[in-house]
Design a protein that fits this description.
Elements (H helix, E strand, L loop, with lengths): L1 E2 L5 E10 L5 E10 L6 H15 L8 E3 L3 H16 L11 E3 L1 H13 L3 H15 L2 H13 L15 H13 L1 H10 L9 H24 L10 H15 L5 H16 L1
Parallel strand pairs: 4-5
Antiparallel strand pairs: 1-2, 2-3
Length: about 260
Amino acid sequence: MWTSGQKVSYMVVTCHFVDPDWLLQKRVLNFCNVPPPHSGFIIADTLQKCFVDWGIENKEFTVTVDNAKANYVAIRIFKDIFRLRKLLTIGGKLFHVRCCAHVTNLLMQDGLGQIGNIIDCVREGIKHLVASEGRLKQFSEIMKQLQLPSKKLILDVPTRWNSTYLILVTAMEFKEVFSRFQDRDQNFQWVPTIEDWMKVKNICDILEVFNEVTNIVSGSVYPTSNLFLPEVWRMKEVLTAKSVDRNEYIQAMAKKMNEKFEKY
């Protein structure tokens, strides 16, 4: 489910299946407008219609959704229907799959909240820069003077944690440019302190692992059911180690994320 910039709500249904040659296939089965309210019953009805239209109402093995409450209700409805028909493999234990990438996103949103003020500072600074061609030109000139690689400043998408990671990694490469740009533009007030940049560096070392995990489990052209468990364990090992880190802000971040990890 997603909502466009015009506030129109859509549902996209994607099917993964193994063909007779044992190759993984992926098809979009439906892309349709779903007016609000997006209750579990409406989601279930829309999915059911899609299954019937394609003649696959008896062929679902698993359904993967994010962790919205309405999705939980919708899958519970399907589970009850399929259980009555005795169509569920392993008693339905594998039927409802919570999206591993979405769970990782929820973990990271909690963790990044520990440096929310620093992220806001970097984000607002970049917004100020990209809003003017002249500012960007000045920024580029400073980069050349410092012999830094030519890279574009990027803005993140709040709903995708790893885009926030990328904005921080990119900004770290330009930390010297930020302070020098302030000398040229007195209106530029978004310069993290040395201590803030150190926090960003230490946290990005952790985020790099979670970014790799997100990219692996988000793959759509290869099977991920055999990959996600080692990656989940990898996240757990990082959280366990960082929960006793010598830096209190790292400890706080790891403990906050671990609470959400244990929940799922």
